[in-house]
Design a protein that fits this description.
Blueprint lengths: L2 H19 L14 E5 L4 E4 L15 H15 L7 E5 L5 H15 L4 E5 L8 H8 L5 E6 L10 H11 L8 E7 L7 H10 L3 H13 L3 E5 L4 H14 L6 H15 L4 H15 L7
Parallel strand pairs: 1-4, 3-6, 3-7, 4-5, 5-6
Antiparallel strand pairs: 1-2
């Protein structure tokens, strides 16, 4: 074997090894393959989700008013009519993200394949323009969903979100609305706002810039801690839906004690109790 042949063989082996090590290209997004996707900022690709983890709309108790508002806004959007971006804010565990997913399922049940739900993680907000570029290419209507959206000190990514929502040159695509959930009405911690007020040369303008992010959402839907009656309605609704045969007095007493030990009453706490009860009864919680 000549030196040139040996060198060629070595180079081919190196090239083959590098090709095996190189990451494979991400697949092209086919929006007809699923009704829900997760955005991966690293690689700029959308992963289809065959089954969405959700709660049925009728099981969400104590939020009837905001439920109807969000359902109406989403129905209009699905029909190609004007609709608002929505900020669902308020108490933890009261069904903000569950409502978004339940409304998406309800609309698609009534109008099959009319809506795509696209989830973007809060830390991937800077990649939002790239995601919108992909969503512009489909004729399907897309609900862009960001759960637990908030911004901390030194985090300037809220500026790119503001620009995308309303102020950018391209603006938001006509086939996209943004639904976000947050524990904060203004998406910013109170100490951030106070710090801006105390240190800025023009305190009013500095605070206004940060608070104005929430103004980009046409609808603000507030979720508040539930009372005892609403909490018990959640418990009874879950028990009935999943066929948990349990004495009513014990159901009430145990679920009440469960809430006390967690220091809160909410839909999340109610669901956690139901999971515990179902496990003790040897029952599976099958979704439709």
């Amino acid at each position: 074997m000549t030196d040139d042949t040996s060198q060629d063989t070595t180079l081919r082996r190196i090239a083959d090894a590098l090709e095996r090590l190189a990451p494979k290209g991400n697949p092209q997004t086919d929006f007809d393959t699923a009704d829900a996707f997760i955005w991966h900022a690293e690689g700029h690709w959308l992963e289809p989700v065959k089954t969405v983890n959700r709660v049925e709309l009728e099981l969400l108790q104590g939020i009837e008013r905001v439920r109807d508002i969000l359902l109406d806004n989403t129905r209009r959007f699905a029909k190609g009519l004007p609709a608002n971006n929505v900020l669902l804010w308020g108490a933890r565990g009261m069904g903000k993200s569950s409502l978004v997913k339940a409304v998406h399922a309800t609309i698609n049940h009534d109008q099959p394949r009319s809506l795509v739900l696209v989830e973007i993680h809060r830390e991937d907000i800077p990649s939002l323009p790239a995601l919108l570029g992909k969503l512009r290419t489909t004729k399907r209507r897309c609900v862009l969903f960001c759960d637990d959206l908030s911004f901390d000190a030194q985090d300037a990514s809220y500026k790119s979100l503001k620009a995308v929502l309303e102020g950018g040159i391209e603006g938001r695509p006509d086939n996209v609305v943004l639904y976000a959930t947050s524990n904060r009405r203004h998406l910013l911690a109170r100490d951030m706002i106070e710090n801006e007020r105390s240190t800025a040369i023009m305190p009013g303008e500095a605070v206004e810039e940060k608070v104005s992010l929430s103004d980009r959402f046409g609808l603000w839907l507030g979720f508040h801690a539930c009372d005892q009656e609403t909490y018990q309605a959640m418990i009874r609704g879950y028990a009935k839906r999943y066929g948990l045969d349990y004495p009513a007095d014990k159901l009430k007493a145990e679920s009440q004690e469960w809430a006390i030990t967690r220091g809160a009453r909410s839909g999340r706490v109610a669901w956690q109790y139901i999971q515990d009860l179902a496990g003790r009864l040897g029952k599976k919680l099958e979704t439709r």
